[in-house]
Write a structure and sequence with these properties.
88% helix; mainly alpha
């Protein structure tokens, strides 16, 4: 008798393959995240390409020229906005960029508590409590600053690589999908896999539409709040807040810190703005975000909140960003398999009934033939 039978060997081989795949995904997680972000960016640009292709007088059957047009339009738009807003951007953030090292040192040493006590009219007890709070969390603040500095270069590199990779998905995405379907399916299961790919494609389109909606809402709220509080460069800061909404957790933190810092340097009502941003974040995370995502992806708002929390606990910022589309994709796969299994069972039942009916007819015909012959 052999030590391992065939069934045990298959189970062990499956477990080893699964462990190998998980290990490869973990080791190459940075590259995988860049590729996923490139696919999502391609879905973001694809409506512009389709619009240009639909309303163009030339090259309607080619995507390459219209992809180039879309990228050129984005570059020109960024250049025009940069040229128009560069003076305001420099006046607003030049002083802030020079003050950041000094502000960081004051936060780490707790000296900023004395400045707040003087400028805001705090009591000595309030100033001492805030100073003790900063000193008690100094190690955490230093770790956060170090991690931000270490990831800055990777983020900047990703911002250049992601649009370049997206060109390949925009120009040849359909062929890549067809080749993947051909490799991962048999001739019998190919129609089912193709329909599943179509469902996932529609799901990603709805996810990007939801992200654009959330970014637009953030822009409108921040711009209106800063305009009412008479913040300088409200339009520029509102656009920044809307764009950073695409980055989970870290995006709104960077936007809030930038807005509040600009208001503090300009001696605007930054405390009111900070309070409004906190209220907006609570509404966004626990009311607007789950409802928008739930409506577009057809999942319950409570499930969207739970998914984002679990994703953040497992994978941090990346987990928050990918958790909702992953759950939506799993839902699409489950519904497609359930529909396919139901269709197969119904077909088998109908086929069985047809067989029984055919046997009954054959038996009746044979009996009638026997009686006639007799």
């Amino acid at each position: 008798m052999s030590l391992f039978d065939r069934r045990t060997a298959k189970i062990l081989a499956t477990a080893l393959v699964f462990a190998l795949v998980v290990t490869v995904i973990y080791v190459a997680r940075a590259a995988i995240v860049i590729f996923v972000a490139s696919i999502l960016f391609a879905y973001l640009i694809d409506p512009i390409v389709r619009f240009l292709q639909r309303h163009s007088l030339f090259f309607k059957n080619l995507r390459g020229p219209h992809i180039t047009e879309a990228y050129l339009a984005c570059i020109i738009l960024v250049a025009v906005l940069g040229h128009v807003l560069a003076p305001a951007f420099h006046n607003t953030f030049a002083g802030l960029s020079q003050e950041i090292p000094a502000i960081a040192d004051k936060v780490l040493t707790g000296e900023i508590a004395n400045e707040f006590r003087t400028s805001q009219g705090w009591t000595d007890a309030q100033g001492a409590w805030f100073r003790a709070f900063l000193l008690r969390h100094r190690s955490y603040i230093e770790t956060s600053l170090t991690s931000v500095e270490g990831s800055a270069s990777g983020v900047i590199a990703g911002l250049f690589v992601i649009p370049i990779l997206s060109i390949f998905f925009l120009s040849d995405g359909e062929n890549l999908a067809n080749q993947t379907i051909f490799l991962l399916s048999t001739e019998r299961s190919r129609p089912f896999v193709r329909s599943l790919a179509v469902d996932l494609h529609l799901m990603l389109q709805r996810y990007i539409r939801a992200k654009v909606t959330l970014a637009a809402l953030s822009f409108v709220f921040c711009f209106c709040a800063m305009f009412l509080l008479r913040f300088p460069n409200a339009l520029l800061l509102g656009v920044l807040a809307g764009l950073l909404e695409f980055i989970p957790v870290a995006g709104w933190m960077i936007a809030a810190a930038t807005i509040v810092g600009a208001g503090a340097l300009a001696h605007a009502n930054w405390i009111w703005m900070l309070g409004l941003l906190c209220i907006w974040r609570i509404l966004m995370d626990y009311a607007i975000y789950p409802r928008v995502m739930g409506h577009e992806l057809e999942i319950h708002p409570l499930l969207a909140i739970f998914t984002a929390m679990v994703g953040g606990a497992i994978g941090g910022i990346i987990g928050v960003y990918l958790s909702v589309p992953v759950v939506a994709a799993l839902r699409v796969v489950y519904l497609r398999f359930a529909s396919h299994a139901g269709s197969a069972a119904e077909f088998s039942a109908v086929d069985g009934e047809s067989s029984v009916g055919a046997e009954a007819i054959a038996e009746a015909v044979s009996c009638r033939a026997g009686r006639t012959g007799g």
